[in-house]
Amino acid sequence: MNIIFDIGNVLIRWAPERAVAPVFPDPAQGLAYLHSVGFFDWNLIQDGGRSFADGLRALEAVHPGKSAPLANYPARFADTIREPISGSWDLANRLAANGHRLFALTNFARETWPAALALYPALSTRFEDIVVSGHEHRHKPNADIYTLLLTRNALSAADCLFIDDSAANVAGARAVGMDAVLFTDPERLERDLNARNLL
């Protein structure tokens, strides 16, 4: 079986409020700010390949005077991903030991991806291939990014299990013919994998 992992909030905890901590030291205030400027929709466009400079200009145009706390987002990005989800890495290692091929498919901005590789060198060795949305100018849950991974690695969708913390992304994988599970925590994932006799 080919196992395809999402990365953010499956293998690595993502806490974007840490990027604006110099302005909003209270995490709740940081999250409130991010929601007030539509950060998560904005970030999805970044994940699709838009440059940070263009993204910041777009944010300022829609929310005049409110973009400054995010001006150093790329430089502070590493602070947002410093917590590995150790149980998920353990499961990935067990799957590999059982002979399963491992891949990753992630919505990640081109300009912040290097920080993930620097903090987690295992990303470069554990997976046969990682499709990064920011490099491909497409993102989940659109079908073309799933089919890109399949085509690039000569995989059949029916022979793949996709793991993601987003219900929309899970639905996108199922729409192209993959089996898929919604990640909530490593313990639930372990049960899902055992139910499929993969561990």
Largest sheet: 5 strands, parallel
Largest sheet: spatial strand order: 5-4-1-6-7
What is the architecture of the largest domain at the second tier of CATH?
Answer: 3-Layer(aba) Sandwich
CATH topology of the largest domain: Rossmann fold
Helix content: 40-55%
Give the class-level CATH name of the largest domain. Answer: Alpha Beta
* DSSP strand count: 7
Poorly predicted tracts of residues: none
Gap between N and C termini, in Å?
11 Å
CATH superfamily placement of the largest domain:
HAD superfamily/HAD-like
Count the domains: 2
H/E series: EEHHHHEHEHHEHHEHEH
**Global shape:** globular
% residues in beta strands = 5-15%
Mean pLDDT across all residues, rounded? Answer: 97
Using the CA coordinates, give the radius of gyration.
Answer: 17 Å
- Given helix and strand content, the structural type is alpha/beta
Q: What is the overall number of helices? A: 11
Description:
There is one protein chain. With 199 residues, the chain is an alpha/beta fold. 45% of the residues lie in helices and 13% in strands. It folds into two domains: 2-13 and 83-195, HAD superfamily/HAD-like (Rossmann fold); 16-80, no CATH class. The strands form two sheets. It has a five-stranded parallel sheet. α5 packs parallel to α11 (186-195). The longest helix is centred in the middle third of the chain and has 12 residues, at 86-97. 35% of the residues are buried.
